[in-house]
Amino acid sequence: MLRTYIRSDEREWERLLPALELAYNTTSHSSTELSPFEVMIGENPLIAAELDVVGALAPTLTPPMTKLFRQLCDRAQSHILKAKWQQKYYADTKRRAVEYAVGDKVWLSSKHLPPFNSCPKLEPRHRGPFELFERIGTVAYRLALPPTYECHDVFHVSQLVPHRSRPPALVPSAADAAWPPMHDAAGNPTDEYEVDYIMDQRGSGDAAQYLVKWRGTPEEQATWEPANHLTTRCRFTHTVCPSTVTKANSEWSSWSSGRRSSYKASIGRIRRAQM
């Protein structure tokens, strides 16, 4: 607004600012249909142009100022409510009235989740399906996320999409559909998972991640895991040991220095040792 007002003389904006402020405060707004002056003091002040036209002002009868002020405030409130209802109407056209029950499976939008790879544009738009664990209020749900998801497990209903079961011919086998149950030496369930082998590696140092093939799952379900997950949240099989991670880390540093062939040969030796 100020830019269009001072376009003819940009160096005089400070002198023109009071006149612009008066014009703004005496102009009716679309939501209240009243000017800021009418809302605050009950009327617009007289300007110099109006005084020249009126000339000698004669006293006129006006209603009490308190009554006029109350009428203007009520009028402004009614128009504000009308504007809010219009905004709600247009906002509701993009909303879905969806309710879920505890135990239902849903897909979670990956828009606000940490990416799995270095190219977020190639990420799937939804992840899952996950089971609804609890309903929070009227528009939020708690999901049963796997332990690798280090994020808050309560999401708004707008971030969820209902899961539709596949035809029986397209349903994968039980070994491919879920993570294999793990138990400790005492037979109690644990959140650790067994690793078959490490398929790839990216990053270096504290940011190093490993593409892990989990035991009992296909390679399509391999996930990128940081090094601390491989030492605290998983259990290595006899074909892979934690020293493999340390060795791969050192070879990755060599690759970063330009010795790419050495890194490829090292990964080949690791894969052959794991098979």
TrEMBL record:
Mark the transmembrane ranges: none
Query: One short Pfam family name for this protein?
Result: Chromo
Q: Which GO terms describe its molecular function?
A: nucleic acid binding
Tell me the superkingdom of the source. Answer: Eukaryota
| Residue ranges annotated for the Chromo domain, each copy included | 193-260
The record ties this protein, via InterPro entries, to:
Chromo-like_dom_sf, Chromo/chromo_shadow_dom, Chromo_domain, RNaseH_sf, SH3_Tf2-1
Which Gene3D superfamilies does UniProt cross-reference here? Answer: 2.40.50.40, Ribonuclease H-like superfamily/Ribonuclease H
The family database entries (PANTHER family) matched by this protein are listed as: CHROMO DOMAIN-CONTAINING PROTEIN, OS12G0499874 PROTEIN
UniProt-recorded name of the protein:
Chromo domain-containing protein
